[in-house]
C-alpha cells in the first residue's frame, strides 16, 4: 500500500472518529430535547381528544417496538418505543399511527361511535388535530415568559446611537438619534427586532418608519448582503445596515408583560421562519441551511454544554419550529389533515377512501423526500460525504 493510500485511510479514519464523537457527545441532549417537545405536541392532541369524548388507545413516545409502558384508568396505553424520532396518539377508530380511519369505522355500534375520533363533528376533529401544534406554540410562550420573569429579556431601545459611514443606513438617510417605529409594517419595540428583520432581508428594500424630532419619517432601506459563519461552521448570507446601539440591558417583566413579550417573540420567530422557507421555495435563499435530525443533534449538543438560559431559548425555538412544520399543508402532517377538513367543509362530506389513500401516499412521499434531502445536507455539513469520498477515492 502506497503512502498516498495510507494518507487517505488516515483521513477516512479521522472523519469516522469525528462523526462517532459527534453522535456520542450530541445524542443525549438531542434525545432529551426531542422527547420533551414530542411529549408536549402529543399531549395537546391527547387532552383535546379526551375533552371531546374520544377514547385514546395509545400515547407513544417514539415508533416501532415498545420498550416499556403502562395503562391508565381510561384504558390508554402510555409507552416508550424503540425509535425515538417522534411519537403519536392513536385514537379509537384509527387504523394506525397516521390517524387514517380503520375498516371497522363503518360498522361501529352507537356506543363505539360516541368515542370514535372519526365520528366526531368536523369542528371537534379539527380542534383535536390543531391542538398538537398549538401546544408547541403555547409551550414556547410559557418557557420564554418564565425566562423573562426569572432572568429577564435582553432589551435595547430601537434608537440609533451611530451610523457607520458608507453603510446602507447612511444611504437610506438614517441619522444618529432616529428611533425605529416600523419596518415593513411590523411594529418595533426593541433594537433586537431591527436586527432580526434586517438579517432575514439581505439585498431587499424595506419600508421603514422612524421617529425624528417629534415626527415620523418614511424611508426605504436596503440591507447589504454579508456572509457569516455560525459557531457550527455553516455559512449563510445575512442583511446588515450599519447602525449601532450599545445600551443593552436585561429587563425583568411581571407575569402579564412577560406573556405579552413572549407571545411577540414567538410570532416574530414564526414569521422569520416562514419567510426563510418561502425564500427557499422561491429559490432566493440557499437550501443548504435546511437541517435535519443530525444537524439538530449537533446544535442540541452545543446548547447542552451552555447555560440553562440558552437551553430554554433553544427548546422554545425548536418547539415553535415543530409547531410550524406540523401545520404545513402536507398529508400525514397535522396541516394536511386540516386541509382535508377544509375540503370536507366545502364538499359537505368527507373525502372518499381512495382519495384519503392517495393523499396519504403523496404526503408520506413528500415527508420522506424532505427528510432525505435535509439529512443529505447534514451529511455534507458534518463531513460524512467527505469521509465516504475518501474511502471510494
Ranges where pLDDT stays below 50 over 5 or more residues in a row are 384-393
End-to-end separation = 14 Å
Q: Tell me what portion of residues adopts beta-strand conformation.
A: 15-25%
Number of E strands: 12
Rg, alpha carbons: 25 Å
Count of all domains: 3
Overall pLDDT, averaged? Answer: 80
Oligomeric state of the chains present here: single chain
Q: Name the strands of the widest sheet in spatial order.
A: 6-5-7-8
Tell me roughly what share of residues is in helical segments: 40-55%
Globular, elongated, flat, extended or rod-shaped: what is the shape? elongated
Give the helix/strand class. alpha+beta
Using brief descriptors, characterize the structure shown.
3 domains, alpha+beta, single chain, two-stranded antiparallel sheet, Pdz3 Domain, 393 residues, elongated
Task: Write up this protein.
This protein is an alpha+beta fold. The chain folds into three domains: 1-31 and 126-152 and 253-393, no CATH class; 53-119, no CATH class; 154-251, Pdz3 Domain. The chain is 53% helix and 19% strand. The protein has eleven helices and twelve strands. A four-stranded antiparallel beta sheet has the order 6-5-7-8. It has a two-stranded antiparallel ribbon with strand order 1-2. Strands 3-12 form a two-stranded antiparallel sheet. A hairpin with a 2-residue loop joins β7 and β8 (215-221). The longest helix is centred in the N-terminal third of the chain and has 49 residues, at 3-51. The model is unreliable at 384-393 (pLDDT under 50).
Amino acid at each position: 500500500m502506497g503512502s498516498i493510500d495510507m494518507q487517505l485511510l488516515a483521513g477516512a479514519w479521522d472523519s469516522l472518529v469525528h462523526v462517532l464523537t459527534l453522535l456520542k457527545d450530541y445524542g443525549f441532549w438531542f434525545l432529551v430535547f426531542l422527547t420533551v417537545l414530542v411529549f408536549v405536541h402529543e399531549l395537546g392532541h391527547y387532552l383535546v381528544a379526551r375533552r371531546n369524548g374520544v377514547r385514546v388507545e395509545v400515547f407513544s413516545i417514539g415508533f416501532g417496538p415498545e420498550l416499556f409502558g403502562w395503562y391508565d384508568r381510561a384504558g390508554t396505553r402510555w409507552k416508550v418505543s424503540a425509535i425515538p424520532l417522534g411519537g403519536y396518539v392513536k385514537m379509537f377508530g384509527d387504523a394506525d399511527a397516521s390517524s387514517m380511519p380503520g375498516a371497522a369505522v363503518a360498522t361501529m355500534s352507537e356506543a363505539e361511535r360516541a368515542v370514535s375520533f372519526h365520528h366526531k363533528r368536523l369542528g371537534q376533529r379539527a380542534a383535536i388535530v390543531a391542538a398538537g401544534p398549538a401546544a408547541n406554540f403555547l409551550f414556547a410562550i410559557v418557557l420564554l415568559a418564565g425566562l423573562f420573569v426569572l432572568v429577564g429579556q435582553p432589551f435595547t431601545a430601537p434608537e440609533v446611537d451611530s451610523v457607520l459611514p458608507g453603510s446602507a443606513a447612511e444611504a437610506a438617510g438614517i441619522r444618529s438619534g432616529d428611533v425605529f417605529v416600523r419596518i415593513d409594517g411590523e411594529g418595533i419595540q426593541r433594537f433586537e427586532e431591527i436586527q432580526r428583520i434586517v438579517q432575514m432581508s439581505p439585498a431587499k428594500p424595506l419600508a421603514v418608519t422612524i421617529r425624528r424630532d417629534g415626527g415620523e419619517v418614511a424611508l426605504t432601506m436596503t440591507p447589504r448582503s454579508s456572509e457569516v459563519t455560525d459557531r457550527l461552521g455553516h455559512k449563510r448570507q445575512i442583511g446588515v445596515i450599519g447602525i449601532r446601539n450599545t445600551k443593552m440591558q436585561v429587563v425583568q417583566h411581571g407575569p402579564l408583560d412577560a406573556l405579552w413579550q413572549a407571545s411577540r417573540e414567538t410570532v416574530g420567530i414564526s414569521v422569520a421562519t416562514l419567510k426563510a422557507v418561502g425564500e427557499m421555495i422561491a429559490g432566493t435563499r440557499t437550501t443548504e441551511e435546511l437541517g435535519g435530525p443530525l444537524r439538530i443533534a449537533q446544535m442540541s449538543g452545543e446548547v447542552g454544554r451552555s447555560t440553562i438560559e440558552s437551553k430554554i431559548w433553544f427548546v422554545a425555538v425548536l418547539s415553535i419550529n415543530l409547531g410550524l412544520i406540523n401545520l404545513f399543508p402536507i398529508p400525514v402532517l397535522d396541516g394536511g389533515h386540516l386541509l382535508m377538513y377544509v375540503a370536507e367543509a366545502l364538499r359537505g362530506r368527507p373525502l372518499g377512501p381512495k382519495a384519503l389513500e392517495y393523499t396519504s401516499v403523496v404526503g408520506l412521499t413528500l415527508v420522506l423526500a424532505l427528510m432525505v434531502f435535509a439529512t443529505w445536507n447534514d451529511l455534507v455539513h458534518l463531513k460524512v460525504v467527505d469521509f465516504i469520498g475518501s474511502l471510494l477515492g
